[in-house]
Amino acid sequence: MPMALLQPFRKMPFLRIIIPYLSGLTAGYYGFRTETFRMLLYTSVILVILLFIGYIGRPFRYGRLWITGVLASLVFFLLGTLNILSRELIKERFSIKESELTAAKLLIVDTPEINPINVRTIARMLERNGTPQRVQIKTKVMVFFTRTGLSEALKSGDIIEIQSRFLPIPGPANKGEFDYRAYLSRQDIDYQVFAGSNNWKFAGGTRRNLKIYAILCRDRLLDCYRSSPMESRLVALLSALTLGYKTDLEAETTELFTKAGVVHVMALSGFNVGIIFLLINYCLGFMRKRGITGIIRLLVSLVAIWMFAIVTGLSSSVTRASVMISLFLIGKHIHRDVHPLNVISASAFLMLVISPFSLFDVGFQLSYAAVLGIVYMQPVFHKIITVKNRLGDKIWILFTVSVAAQLATAPLTLYYFHQFPLFFWITNLYVVPLVTLIIYLSVPFVILSFITPVKNFLARILEFLMKAIIGPLDRLADFPGAVMEGIFINQIQVILLLILLVGMGMYIRHHRAGYIIVSLSAMLAFIFTDTFRLYSTNRQQYLTVNCIRGTSIMNIISGKNNLVLSFSEKMPTEKMLHYSFYNWWVERHVCRTVDIFTRKRMNEAKGFDLPSISIQNAVLGNNIFLNYSGVSLVVCTDDVFEHFNSPNKLRTDYVVVTDNIRPGISKLSKHFDVGSIIIDSSVGYYESKKWTALCELNKINCWPVREKGAFMLKVK
Predict the structure, then answer these.
(1) Nearest to residue 276, comparing CAs of 442, 497, 82, 79?
(2) Would you list the domain boundaries of the chain?
(3) 3-class secondary structure, 155
(4) How far is CA 550 from CA 460, 554, 565, in A?
(5) What is the Cα–Cα distance from 593 to 540, expressed in whole angstroms?
(6) C-alpha to C-alpha distance for 216 and 222, rounded to whole angstroms
(7) Is 290 left (phi over 0), alpha (psi -120 to 50) or beta?
(8) Of 171, 337, 360, 476, which cross-links 181 as Cys (Cβ 3.0–4.6 Å)?
(9) CATH architecture of the domain formed by 101-207
(10) What pLDDT is recorded for position 5?
């Protein structure tokens, strides 16, 4: 690396720390197992001793200083790995058996969410079977209460006693489905419990900590919003924009903001904290930045930022932004020049030491990607055009900020959400100023809420501003091509896109041909990998018996053809199909070619258009025989096997059992030469257990979809 690039790198110590530490976290999460913890711990101790000897004895001088750097990097790599593995070990040690009836004392740590049939909240385990939980990472539980007057009165900080079975959070049931279990586990929520009205009670007393006080402050503000004369939809939107509380938000509103490319204003994060900082900085503009007044100005700014973080519930995104801005302000006060990348690295390191699993959360990755894009790409874009008019320059700055943030987060957006909004550069120009005004007006709205006329007047202004946001977004969403959807990129392509963006940004900044070569190489590699993947999807053949509880559903993918076969009387909703299958369909490039066959349509159709698929109805009653590229299945939907006598057994690779069939192996083996039995998701829990036991007794391969998830077969 040229010395010109090494010099600024040496001035950013936290950047040199965060790179190996992030690598260690990734290795601990995806690579190492908990069994290696002791070995890694001993290795890190030896490396620390070597570093200490090198520092005291100074054997590494001049040309050998790189040895110290390598040792330090290895130490931080191992610290990251050990941070992950230590928490996994604690979870394993204090795990709860599914069959164990547990009497526990729980502390409610989140605002209970009242649903039509239940009350849901998050609780932390204080005691289990009379024994206090003395662990560093407290076990958290998702609790579902039967909706009663008592459960609706629950609030954060209450302590309850419960006796029930603590069940593990179920994993994804279908290929590509969102892994809700992993998402909750990263927040230390590994169990769920269903509390009927008779198996829980208040334990008496409450417990408060900073986090609970913050949530209670946010709940008070929510009550203030809800008592205003605004429409409920707009109250939910105001809660999301100013407090980051999105529980009451309608799915249509979230989708609208997502398609417009402005969903970031609803995620309480650096944007909102930045607005508060700018307001405080403007109000304190009369104070000098140095001396006693400078210290007072710094303290007031820090208090204001963290007060905002507390009253909004101390969410992880706001905490990240508050840490980052606090470090920046302190650094600016101590030194005249603070490198932004060092501040960003320091805040990330501090957050990941406390909460290492945050690295694998989408919100964490997107927030830091957006900040890096704004810091490094926005100044480059701003210099492309010089606008002398002050108002025009402000608009140009806003435009370049939105473009920089959107481009920096584009690889992650495509990877996680498979879509990219095309009109973000328009919507941000008016949505961001309006949201800024809404946040400013919400402050006097809350402070003066005890004066009813003032409260109602400000509520009408806020209502008008929010309608001014939603109205144009509604019209824009109807435009064809407003969002590019159904895009899939893999992890390698994410890295290639990041290299491409960094290379282009460095070329614009430094005008060196080497950066163009790097960018073009990344682009060619991206095109090559995408072409190879597209070629492989043209020849793909998959058959899956999917898992949507209470339904019997199958999916066949042949090249670019995508068939969904529903054997139940009631079809799953479009929303459920999208949740269960969309990511998998996008990955296989068949999300736009979905063809749904209900039982009625299968009975009416003579066959499928694809020569590799044949279907026969009314096999032994109303059962269905299906052949796909030589793989044969019988879908049992009519329990009439005992009324037929078959001289010859029907050869079949798989027998799919639905909820219409009573458990029994002999009646199936009487007609079919059974290879394997698939118990689909329409079969109830206890019936599925009976089928599984019968298969084990008769030594027949069995796949219970309800328990193991979707059955997937890659057809040759």
Answers:
(1) 442
(2) 3-93, 101-207, 278-360, 491-537, 541-714
(3) coil
(4) 46, 13, 15
(5) 14
(6) 10
(7) beta
(8) 171
(9) Beta Barrel (2.40)
(10) 46
Helix axes 251-260, 232-243, angle to 10 degrees: 50
Alpha-carbon gap, residue 709 to 716, rounded angstroms: 22
Instruction: Please report, for residues 275, 326, 335, 660, the alpha-carbon distance to residue 322 in angstroms, rounded to integers and kept in the order given.
Output: 12, 6, 20, 57
Looking at residue 66, its pLDDT comes to 66
The Cα 181–Cα 68 span in angstroms is 41
> Which residues is 627 bridged to in the sheet?
614, 632
Both tokens of 705, joined, read 């979809």
Report the length, in residues, of the chain: 716
User: 541-714: which CATH architecture?
Assistant: 4-Layer Sandwich (3.60)
Nearest 5°: the CA angle 588, 594, 596 is: 135
pLDDT at 143: 94
Report the Cα–Cα distance between both ends of the chain, in Å, rounded: 49
Name the pairing type of β-strands 650-657 and 672-679: parallel
Strand ranges (DSSP E) for 429-536? 483-485
The two structure tokens encoding residue 438? 């809404």
pLDDT at 269: 63
Three-state DSSP at 553 gives strand
Helix 424-447 to helix 390-417 angle, to the nearest 10 degrees? 100
Residue 585 CB coordination number (10 Å) = 24
C-alpha span between 137 and 611 (Å, rounded): 57
Residue 158 pairs with which residues in a beta bridge?
206
User: What tokens does 513 get?
Assistant: 């041909």
Counting as low any pLDDT under 70, the low residues of the chain are: 1-11, 54-66, 99, 130-138, 266-271, 285-286, 288-290, 335-338, 604-609, 646
> Could you tell me which of 421, 425, 430, 433 has the C-alpha nearest to residue 477?
421
Residues in a beta bridge with 139:
none
* Tokens 């159904």 -> residue: 486
Q: What are φ and ψ of residue 595, in 5° steps?
A: -125, 115
Outline where 178-250 has alpha helix (H). 180-185, 210-226, 232-243
Q: Tokens for 713?
A: 């077969």
Mapping DSSP onto H, E and C, the string for 251-297 reads HHHHHHHHHHCCHHHHCCCHHHHHHHHHHHHHHCCCCCCCHHHHHHH
Ramachandran angles phi, psi of 37, nearest 5°: -60, -50
User: Which string of DSSP letters, residue by residue, matches 439-504?
Assistant: HHHHHHHHHTTTSHHHHHHHHHHHHHHHHHHHHHHHHHHTSTTSEEES----HHHHHHHHHHHHHH
Contact 523, 504 (CB under 8 A): no
Q: What was the pLDDT predicted at 120?
A: 93
Residue 318 structure tokens? 């706001």
- Whether 80 contacts 356, CB under 8 Å: yes
Q: According to the model, what pLDDT value does residue 705 have? A: 94
What type of residue is 437?
L
**Which residues face 128 on adjacent strands?**
104, 131
d(CA 103, CA 2): 63
**Hey, what are 81's tokens?**
């790995």
Q: Which amino acid would we find at residue 267?
A: A
pLDDT, tens only, 323-337 = 888 888 887 777 655
Contact by Cβ (8 Å): 67, 57: no
